[in-house]
Write a structure and sequence with these properties.
mainly alpha; 8 helices; globular
Length: 231
């Protein structure tokens, strides 16, 4: 069986499993997401400016250069072409070298989840038009092409958590490690003054829409795995 056919089949099985999970659990899942959204905007957003100052510790111009450089590097490598692509390639190559089809499946799962969540986030933040912290007047301005008005949700944080959360479900030890990395990405985006705390929380919220269904789909594939050795 050719590699493209294998990928197409595994992609179909993962997406089909995710849709099946959603159909079975959509009521509690959607209810949880609604409650989380309310908590973010009622309990976090009103304190965005104070919390951002607490995260950064001091005014932007007085932040220690060394810490800012570290945060900048984490932020740079935490984007999709950095963290997500490197993670997927590493899992895939490890699956090939050690003959572990499941690892290749996990690689595909992280790419699918990050891609779906990332695209959805880009559409949402374009429509919301929230200004970034460096814009003096905080607010929601509607559709804007300027990157300065695409703060919510954080794209870097969304794709990082979209890879990490499903791994917590399907491969917990690896998921814990990647979640720590995703958390550091969220911190870095605030520290370099690109996002408010609510933007980071909204990124996690966006990631959950795809991470839970795909994570459980991959977990079911692992538990009740049919004979399948190509991917």
């Amino acid at each position: 069986m050719s590699l493209p056919s294998d990928l197409k089949r595994e992609t179909s099985l993962l997406i089909g499993g995710a849709l099946q999970w959603f159909r079975r659990h959509w009521r509690p899942f959607v209810t949880f997401q609604i409650l989380l959204l309310v908590a973010i905007w009622a309990g976090l957003h009103p304190y965005d400016h104070e919390l951002l100052k607490a995260v950064r510790g001091q005014p932007f111009g007085m932040v220690p250069k060394e810490t800012l450089v570290i945060a900048g590097e984490i932020s740079h490598w935490g984007d999709f072409p950095g963290f997500n692509v490197i993670l997927a390639i590493t899992l895939w190559l490890a699956g090939v070298l050690f003959c572990r089809p499941r690892w290749k499946r996990l690689a595909l799962m992280t790419v699918l989840c990050a891609a779906f969540a990332g695209i959805s986030t880009n559409v949402l933040r374009f429509g919301i038009g929230r200004s970034r912290p460096q814009v003096k007047q905080d607010g929601f301005y509607g559709p804007r092409f300027s990157n300065l008005y695409q703060s919510c949700p954080s794209g870097h944080t969304t794709t990082a958590f979209a890879a990490a959360i499903p791994l917590v479900i399907a491969a917990p030890p690896l998921g814990v490690a990647t979640t720590l990395i995703a958390t550091s990405v969220g911190w870095s985006r605030m520290f370099v003054n690109r996002h408010y705390p609510a933007d980071i929380a909204m990124a996690v919220w966006m990631a959950l829409w795809f991470a839970l269904p795909l994570g459980f789909a991959a977990r079911v594939r692992r538990i009740s795995d049919e004979p399948y050795t190509s991917v």
